[in-house]
Amino acid sequence: MKRFSENNSNPRCSKRRSNVDNSREQNGDGLGSTFFPTDIPMSYKCSEIIKSPLDGKRYLAVEFDNGLQCVLISTYPCNNDIDYCLPLEPTTCSFQEVYEFNKCFLQMYNDQGHDKDPDEMSLLGKIAAYTSKNSVDTIPETKLEEKELWEPPRKKSFIKCPVVANSYEPFAISIAIAVGCLNDPDNISGIAHLLEHVVFLGTQGCPEPWTILSNNTISANAATEMDHTIFHAAMNTSTEFVKVMELFSEMVACPKLSQEHVENEVHNIDCENTIKLSRDFLRVGALFLLCSRSDHRMRRFGMGDRISLGRCDITQLVRKHFHRYYRPNYMTLCIQAPLPMEDLIRLSAQHFQKLEYMDQPKPWEEIVNEGFPFDQKKFSRMYKVYPFKNVQWMIVSWAMSCLSWQNYETKPLEYAAMLLSHKGKSGLDFYLKSKGWITCSATSFSSECQEQDAYFLSNKYYSGIHLGLELTNEGVLQETEIIKAIFSYIALLRQVGPKRRIFNELRTAKANRYHYRTCMDKSVIDIGIAACRPRSPKLILTGPELLTTYDPDAIRDVLDSLLPRETNVITVSRMFKNIVTTIDPVSLVTYGSHPFCPDLLDELESIKPFREFTIPDSNPYVCNNICRPVDFDIGGMTVETSLSYLRLSGKAGLKHQHTSSKRGLADYSVYTFEFTSPYCRANPHNCAMICLWKKMLKEKILTRIHPAVLADVTFSIFDGESGLLLSLDGPSVFLPTVWLDVLDEFMNFENYLEEKTFLTFKELHLKIFQNANLRYDTLGYAEDLVLYLTTYQYILMSVLENYLRYYVTFDEFLQFTRNYKSRMWICSELLGTITYSELGLLAGSLTRLEYDALPEGDICVNHVQQLPIGEKCLSVKAMSKACITSTTWNYYQLGQLTEDMEDMLPILAKHISNFLFNQLRSNSRVAPVTKLRTKEQLSYFVKVESDISFTVSSISVIVIMQADRFKPGYVDERIDNSLVSFYNEHMKTEEKVRNLFQLASNSTEAGSIVKEFLADSKFIKKLRYLYKKCLPHKILKVCKRPSYRKLTVQVQGNPRFEGSIPLEPVYRCPKRKVYETPQTQINPDCIQRAQGKIILEIPDDLVHENAYFITSLDKFKQSLKMYPNDSDYKE
């Protein structure tokens, strides 16, 4: 690491900077020399960071004298063109420098020999292996000393690749502080989380930082984790970048931390906790932490609520926590910008070198010194959990000491997790599915009901592997058999031992993904967090991503640690309702537990591998030569003939946008195929069938193409309005072969489907439809009702649940899939590097399909329902007593707008969102101050989104609040008043509109649109008229008669605490309304039963139909008409 001390700038650097500054000023960037003072004394150490040779960005690790660690990323576009004359390595077709990187740093290509038996190793070899393992396993208390690491050669012929960065986020900053929830005081949970919130609310020099962040960033947010807190933002221009950088330095140096801010944010954190309390995966995570020792920090409640933080001295405690931990020697600054590296160093020094160093024990040492966090007696048990939603999971976990297993070179945990989650036909996943015990593998703590794999966790305090399974009803009953199968597969892995071939495949797949994808997409958030980890600064990029050294002893030790007596099993199901009795008062998880039966433990320890289990075969998709040696642009007659046939037959359409391959680089493509059929989502029968088919088809396809998935191919399937949409994304050389497998599974789906599998997935989908009406925060219920009332063909989830339960049989399902594929139209779109030979293969695969062409006129088209003029309210009760939040969803229908108005709608919605979230002011003509979050603390969740569905535009304002504090109707009134305040402050005059959108004109994402808009006075007038016409202004009375179309859906939750008195709305006198007699429609019994579950909330004194409340859901929808085709906007 080199040492630098500067008191004056380098004249050569200053000259180059002045040239750059002039060019920026000419381009309107606004970055002048004042941003780079040349008289800043700097003293720092720096070192280069190892990166991929294909990464065009420059990285530098810098440490200032105050202990601040910086990761600087320069995307300065200077000499970043690819030199295509550089030599290629003949065996891999990659650039010579990439080959050298893989060979020297990753040790690829030179260890392809046979696996060695440890008993056959020489004594010297065993000692060398043991020494190597221990040199990377142990994490010392001080910083890691730099090892002799291979570094890419720096020479003139080195590859200079173009910077491929997110075009919408050219400037970015993150500050990671190595303090998190585990550093909270013993008796005050949530201090770190509260401090993260309050830091954003004001500094000594900037009382309202959200004003700067809202006007100068694409995105800005923060998060508090167990061991770190991170603040991050992304900007478009250098001017915004400097402003935000200065603000962030003040936020971590001198936040205001006023008593008002602290007390207000306690309510906000309590609301956030209430919303998250009903998320089952968070409850399971909380139960897992309850297995830790009673005297260990891991057991603390990191989120916080008004009980844990509602102390009279909370402000003083927050300030004390800030002064103890927010120090530069605990921080990592990460910035990315298209500026020279010298400028990034000076900017960092200018804003962050002033922070004061404190010589105190490091935050992570406080936890590491407490030892292994888990109590083995509490951990090694079988837990049963009664969930909030109807989900059925099993999470099997093993926890180990991080001092033994945190090996960044071999990553033995990742090796073991990959094998446990392998979806091949001889693996654990396939065996459990064939028995009908599981439907998919699921990550235990990341998301609900999503297909993911086993994963490994490694931090400063412990390491572990978690295997999550989504169970069927039979699987819950066969809990013991599933555990036996898991340990039988582990017995096979121990028996076979580490395999060099498997390690090499994993290393090669990760290397290919890193060189050709990850190194281009790495965000400053990920890099900043990675820099907090105890590793050499040179390995910040490669350490988390790549495998370098094959160490069979390290892998064997991990496999040997997966012992039955050190296993934690958590099973989640509603079948345990009458079994579990314990309720954790903080997380509200309801659970019970018992130790493993001694006989079961003995059986598991002596279990043999099942004959169905073998290790995965060689993966043909993982290879070193995924690059093309030359450009491929050669065509032939085959593709032309196939395309002509497709056009003439009317059976399919094939569009392609070819990008020429580049020698030495991997090519990537995206294939999208939409299978349109008359059997779409137009009725409950088709909709239920398609939803079920999509889930089953996805599992079958992923199982078949799993080797390709391990080689960076992704597969997605969606059920659109007019049919199924299948998508493939990955290396171009693999996709044609993978597509043929996908197409075969699609066309021959019912030939291999068993009734047992059908019933398993039907059971799963019944739970999915039911859970949509039991959303933890009532948000899903509100969204379901909004879509039903505003979309012509939308089917309520409760209707689909009843239809699937009573009307869908195995034979009917098979007949539906056959009918669907008998009459179709296939729309194909291919993007990326598509050679003519590949295009011919794809076109030929479609040509050989046997089905009848679907005329364009038979394609079912959906429509938006036109709301009546004025306002309608649908108020309902939550369908579960456990829902402790309420939701207000205000839908403002704007109609069919002109194209330029549609372009401006998302920009307008963003400004409204910023205003509603934090920046509202009081107004004498409306209600008192209505800051939805910062002042009244109405909610942690305030969202504004624009939408264009079937040519109809709308804006929605969505708020989730605590049922204890506010009624949904009260929040509805606050939203309307806030929209009026927004009009008064920003839309009342043409000058105010120009001021509002002036900052957006610098955006690279929408700058040209805004600039064109600001130059047109008529357009501004139209926008103001649209806002007045289509959003409610009852108070301002700007219109002689109502012209807006608004629907408010209000879902009322249940108060968590007895005696709560939530604030009520003040309804204005509703006018009477008489509905026109609708046409009689016959609904199936299932629809009538489903709608009978919806409980309307109507005032007791309302005995007649009126202009505000909807008293009959079905009757109201039948009174609506489909939206007109002509433009709804007239000035």
UniProtKB/TrEMBL annotation:
<feature type="domain" description="Peptidase M16 middle/third">
    <location>
        <begin position="536"/>
        <end position="775"/>
    </location>
</feature>
<dbReference type="Pfam" id="PF05193">
    <property type="entry name" value="Peptidase_M16_C"/>
</dbReference>
<feature type="domain" description="Peptidase M16 N-terminal">
    <location>
        <begin position="172"/>
        <end position="272"/>
    </location>
</feature>
<dbReference type="GO" id="GO:0046872">
    <property type="term" value="F:metal ion binding"/>
</dbReference>
<dbReference type="Pfam" id="PF16187">
    <property type="entry name" value="Peptidase_M16_M"/>
</dbReference>
<keyword id="KW-0479">Metal-binding</keyword>
<dbReference type="InterPro" id="IPR007863">
    <property type="entry name" value="Peptidase_M16_C"/>
</dbReference>
<dbReference type="Pfam" id="PF00675">
    <property type="entry name" value="Peptidase_M16"/>
</dbReference>
<dbReference type="InterPro" id="IPR011765">
    <property type="entry name" value="Pept_M16_N"/>
</dbReference>
<feature type="compositionally biased region" description="Polar residues">
    <location>
        <begin position="1"/>
        <end position="12"/>
    </location>
</feature>
<dbReference type="InterPro" id="IPR050626">
    <property type="entry name" value="Peptidase_M16"/>
</dbReference>
<dbReference type="InterPro" id="IPR032632">
    <property type="entry name" value="Peptidase_M16_M"/>
</dbReference>
<feature type="compositionally biased region" description="Basic and acidic residues">
    <location>
        <begin position="18"/>
        <end position="27"/>
    </location>
</feature>
<feature type="domain" description="Peptidase M16 C-terminal">
    <location>
        <begin position="318"/>
        <end position="508"/>
    </location>
</feature>
<feature type="region of interest" description="Disordered">
    <location>
        <begin position="1"/>
        <end position="34"/>
    </location>
</feature>
<protein>
    <recommendedName>
        <fullName>Nardilysin</fullName>
    </recommendedName>
</protein>
